[in-house]
Amino acid sequence: MSEVLLDVKGLKKYFTTKRGLLHAVDDVTFTIEKGKTLGVVGESGCGKSTTGRAILRLHEPTGGQVLFEGQDVAKLNATELRHKRKEMQIIFQDPFSSLNPRKTVSQTIEEPLKLHKLIPDKQKRLEKVLETMETVGLAERYINTYPHELDGGRRQRIGIARALALDPKFIVCDEPVSALDVSIQAQILNLMNEIQEQRGLTYMFITHDLSVVNHFSDDIAVMYLGKLIEKAPSEVLFANPVHPYTQALLSAIPLPKLGARKERILLKGEITSPINPAPVCRFANRCQYATDRCRSEEPQLKEIETGHFVSCFLCE
Amino acid sequence: MSENKNVATVDVAKKYKKKSQTADIVKRLFRNKSAVLGMIIFLCIIVIALSADFLFDYEQDVIKQDIMNRLQGPSSEHWFGTDEMGRDIFARVLYGAKYSLKIGFSASIVSLAIGLVIGAVAGYYGGWIDMVVMRIMDVLLAIPGTLLAIAIVASLGSSVNNLIIAMSVSGIPGFARIVRSSVLTVKDNEYIEAARAIGATDRTIIFGHVLPNGMAPLIVQATLRVASVILSTAGLSFLGLGVPAPHPEWGALLTNARSYIRDYSYMCLFPGLAIMTTILSLNLFGDGLRDALDPKQK
Known about the structure:
The structure holds 2 protein chains of 2 kinds. Helix content of chain A is about 30%, strand content about 25%. Chain A is built from 9 helices and 12 strands. Chain A has an 8-stranded mixed sheet with strand order 6-7-8-3-9-10-12-11, sandwiched between helices. Chain A has a 4-stranded antiparallel sheet with strand order 2-1-4-5. Chain B starts with a helix and ends in a 5-residue tail after the last helix. The model of chain B has no long low-confidence stretch (mean pLDDT about 85). The interface between A and B is medium-sized, with 38 and 28 residues.
């Protein structure tokens, strides 16, 4: 059993809206081991990104604990949090809006180093910038270009370089490839894989693309409407999905084979509103196995075999 | 070895020099003929204002009465003629540029600075701070600028400094609103969140990320504000609340000349032309700047 880097317990993030309290992330609990990748999947609006941002406190969590190397990030004050940010970074989805259009490549990568006064010497800082650019595969001739002069793949490399500049231990990857062309997706994924191996990084990889997550993750967590409904090592999850939603999700992966047919589970019904949800199973409305119990009680996350957690009454 | 490496990094930074975005904007500005015209005229006016002290002796040429030569039309000796006290109107108009520009620039800069801070704080933090601050700005905005300035000057007394204060106060809400709205549009970009993620403080985010990306409308507003302050100052002086006599402020020259307009119309003509030229040049320049700063025009 390797060391646990991140231990999230009962994480909650509610947003106040005009119509009530929006439960974006509701009582999510999981751990990530050092050097491993946790893939987080789910449809859009299920709270994947919000979970990632709440862990980094880019959104203030409403409740719960985020233990990073045993220290509760949710309780840090502003200065402590700023220091902690050196160790926890994020790569954003959209490489077009995540880079300041008025800063050159080197200014963007240099900024975190400047902010934390890590390398006071200008010359050495430039060396570090060049080194980081090399790591992410950006040619040094781009050092003084502006983001709008570069394509999506290169921009995303800048985003990765900015996150890596501080030598973090943990990176939240918020759909880092979903805005890119398929051919470039593969390049970026391979790059991220290499960097992880070199530096022993830990990733939380948020995506809605199941084929990506299968390649990339050691563990996979499936989220539905703010709830974590299933978490297992990836091979286990793909071989033996237990939650009806996970099953439906996996059956939707297209097979890259002509004429291949497979039983699709089509989900019917509307998604339950995440605003003031009733304490019942949130998937019950669309679940073909739903019983009265599902509509009157809320299932809890249970470990059905080692490392395989499910939140469903079916497996009890 | 490490020295070699140092040399190498310096070379890399030099070799791929960054193209300045400002240079781009200047280039686009110079392509716009009317903007260049406005700029040239305005630069001339600035030069005149700065050299007024060297060209004329204030005591001798600008305010000294010479009753023998009163109300003379334009001639080779007095290019713009003389007024009812025999003072050379050419000297007075040129000297007047000094007052107008001084008031125009100082008041615009002061209201820009204060409006910038107020608008940035309100826009960035939002919530009740935004509510309270912007409602106060709305109250100020509800009072017409000239009226507000009249009230301030009337209560503080009329002097150049009080005029600047009055003009600054009435300009603040306009700037605050513009800054707030551009902060609101920029703030939701992911790079602001990215800046927070790498540990930037609110101050770094506001001044390093938000404002540089929302500067364009502000620069334009500042340019146009100089013009409108000059015009309002002339208006206040015209009403007798501006720069006190015998200082040759343009608006004051106009009021003075008003009683003689029937017989000596040139007395009104030249200060009026001076005001018009200044405002026109600033507006041409401001409009050109607005176009040049718009990235869609690339």
